[in-house]
Amino acid sequence: MNNSTPTIRSVTVADVAREARVSKATAARVLGGYGVVSDKVRGDVLAAAKALDYRPNELARSMTTGKSGIIGVVVGDIENSFFSFAVRGISDTARAAGFNVILANSGEQIEAEKAAVRVLIGKRVDGLIVTPSESRDVSHLRDIHRSGRPLALLDRALPDLDVDTVTVDDRDAAMRATRILTDTGHRDIAYVTAVDFSEHEYRDLEQIYTSSVRERIEGFLAACRDAGIVTPERFVRLGATKPEETRAITDKLLSTPERPTAILASDSLIAIEMFKVIRERGLRVPEDISLITFHDADWTSVTSPPITVVDQPAYMLGKVVTELLLRRIEGKVRPPERVIVPTSIIQRGSVGPPFREK
Amino acid sequence: MNNSTPTIRSVTVADVAREARVSKATAARVLGGYGVVSDKVRGDVLAAAKALDYRPNELARSMTTGKSGIIGVVVGDIENSFFSFAVRGISDTARAAGFNVILANSGEQIEAEKAAVRVLIGKRVDGLIVTPSESRDVSHLRDIHRSGRPLALLDRALPDLDVDTVTVDDRDAAMRATRILTDTGHRDIAYVTAVDFSEHEYRDLEQIYTSSVRERIEGFLAACRDAGIVTPERFVRLGATKPEETRAITDKLLSTPERPTAILASDSLIAIEMFKVIRERGLRVPEDISLITFHDADWTSVTSPPITVVDQPAYMLGKVVTELLLRRIEGKVRPPERVIVPTSIIQRGSVGPPFREK
DNA sequence: TTCTATAATGAGACCGGTCTCACACGCAAT
DNA sequence: ATTGCGTGTGAGACCGGTCTCATTATAGAA
After folding, report:
1. Architecture, CATH, for domain A13-65
2. Domain(s) of CATH 1.10.260.40: residues in chain B
3. Length A2 CA → D20 C1' (Å)
4. pLDDT tens digits, one per residue of B292-348
């Protein structure tokens, strides 16, 4: 009697076969649902399986078939509700197709991303969905692709990597959001984004290795220039990766006498922190400062005033990227697709004309 | 040249062994990091592995060892930020111990929960963390436990199932929150919760099969009775599982002339919807109606006024339950633990004396 | 009746690792 | 010179499925 290890050896096809008095091959046929078997034998095997409470070992099944039924997902930050929704879209779509999802968080660190990819490849996932945190180092992604395992990119495009990609119209969305601000009369607009960077100051686009971040800055700057604003980049701030960083950036931004009269935040985590700082400083939105943020997070509709947002269809993004990946897993050979999902702007109450005592 | 199937057969230990001119067993020894090998051979094998870009097949490894390095997690609703945080706590703790996580969403449906458990068992996860949606039907959980696979329960206890369990002090938390309301003078307090139920009316505790929901109702009713409120159950509402349901409940609750003067919401998803309805009806918080909710969701601190909440340490809950599970996976034999994590109440501005034109 | 096509079943290889066991070799003790 | 022991290596079974191929039984055709 071995009670040190309580693990009971699980029931295998061989056990069922023995119980049903048929060969392992035959039992496997009915249990695996392939090949042909007579109705009588099928009944016997099924009865034996039920009696023994047989549960197929998916691992062993995966070994031979080479398919694991698992999709690996690497996102930048699950805590960000934009990603939560995307992941929900991925999970739902995958599950509907009979796939499971292993989720890994890269924390936007390239090394963590590489490690996650390695682990998932080791687990022989049937395909990967990645939110690449950098466009400089894509060797690990190229490896996936080369190994024949389907790869699809979410939210961020990689110019060097020609695979299925689903993004939103970041550049355009940033332009439209900025235009709302300039049309209302703003000339001093801050753009605050989360790209990992030691300094908060922006120098030029060459610093930015994340496509979505870059395109949004481009769009922001373009719209500003269209409106005749001279050096719009003076109010671009990077590195709002954590609440404390965002707070520091916001504090500094609002402390100068020629502070911006409007802010465009690149995600809702940044915006909520900025909103808190704004309120703590006794400033009013939109009378003292206007605010627009990317992502229609739940909180944006319950503040006073509610916040004008760029609504990114995150769930849809996840759904579409998964559909693309699944098609490729099914072996359809076709040129890689680059889908750009349109965004819309939900105008609420956080934008007003600039306040400026002259 | 075979370009119909781009899948390149992956490099195996046998390939590496051949390249390094050693036996498969020896190559496996250095690659797997077990047994003894001479330094020379180790070098040869490692060089061959690097040259061939060998990646171990975790699936095959799991087959023989019986361990998959995966923890299965079944939660009620990932969209709920309480669970997001808990899952984050689980993921972080698991990853730190070298485990991966497969996440499944039950949507609080017992059948989906059973299906998820079956799939995860099939994948031979090393252990499971489940948020049981019902206490009536626990056969599938008992099966896990019986199969020798460690199981730990999150957020909800099961009286019949003696396994590691981590919950919060739901009853006590509900009492404390209610007492804040009664101390401020409220006599007509609504309690709105999310348990799946066709009707919204509450009859008795026998209806409730989810421990946390039940304990909270108990706590709420007890605190009301302590304050001398006669039939506190008249304002208990069930079935706020979706925004539309919550909206319907809230509308009905606020339409009657003897409407409640305070509300206690069992989660932040319910509370945000109620808050919206309250505002749409032109009611003010806390002048016209007081509001407390479970879970310190981000939005609760940016409304005007900010919302008083029961702060549940969701991340900590996930962390603790994972630690318990990991210990058991490591084979430590010990009696099951039931950990109750304390909550705290964060008083903000959503509670005031009852308004009543008499 | 004999031959052949077809259906049903069994035997065993295989997937890619782990791990047990046997064996060869070298060196110290007897 | 013989025995003994430890170290390093190889051969091959094993995990629990899938799947190919051979074999047998059965029915229909010649």
Report:
1. Orthogonal Bundle (1.10)
2. 13-65
3. 40
4. 999 999 999 999 999 999 999 999 999 999 999 999 998 878 899 999 999 999 999
Shortest CA to C1' contact from B58: nucleotide: C17
Helices marked H in A97-184 = 110-122, 139-146, 170-183
Q: For the whole model, what pTM was predicted?
A: 0.89
A74: left (phi over 0), alpha (psi -120 to 50) or beta: beta
Using a 10 angstrom Cβ sphere, with 0-12 exposed, 13-18 middle and 19 or more buried, the burial of residue B118 is: middle
Segments of chain A assigned to CATH 3.40.50.2300: 70-168+314-343, 170-311
Reading phi first (left if > 0) and then psi (alpha if -120 to 50, else beta), residue B194 is in alpha
In angstroms, the CA of A15 and the C1' of C7 are apart by 26
- Condensed to tens digits (0 to 9), the pLDDT of residues A115-169 reads 899 989 989 999 999 999 988 899 999 988 877 899 999 999 998 899 999 999 9
Q: Do A7 and B148 touch (CB under 8 A)?
A: yes
Dump the DSSP string for B3-49: -SS--PPPP-HHHHHHHHTS-HHHHHHHHHT-S---HHHHHHHHHHH
Cβ contact B56–A122 (<8 Å): yes
Distance between CA A75 and CA A128 in Å, rounded?
Answer: 11
Q: Which residues in A lie closer than 8 A to residue B148 (C-beta atoms)?
A: 5-8
**In terms of Cα–Cα distance, which of A41, A43, A46 is closest to A13?**
A46
**For residue B172, what pLDDT is reported?**
97
Say what the pLDDT of residue A355 is: 78
Farthest CA pair distance, chain A: 95
- Which of A31, A269, A298 to probe by mutation at the B interface, max B CB count within 10 Å? A298
Prior bond to B159 cis, omega within 30?
no
Instruction: Spell out residues with C-beta < 7 A from strand D.
Output: A 9-14, 24-25, 28-29, 31-32, 34-35, 54-57, 60-61, 63-65; B 22-26, 28-29, 35-38, 40-41, 60, 63-64
pLDDT > 70 in chain B, percent? 97
Residues of B in contact with A275 (CB under 8 A): 302
- The domain made up of A70-168+314-343 has a fold known as Rossmann fold (3.40.50)
Pick the CATH number of B170-311 from 3.40.50.1780, 3.40.50.720, 3.40.50.2300, 3.80.30.20: 3.40.50.2300
Q: Is omega for the bond preceding B336 within 30 degrees of 0, making it cis?
A: no
Amino acid at B116: A
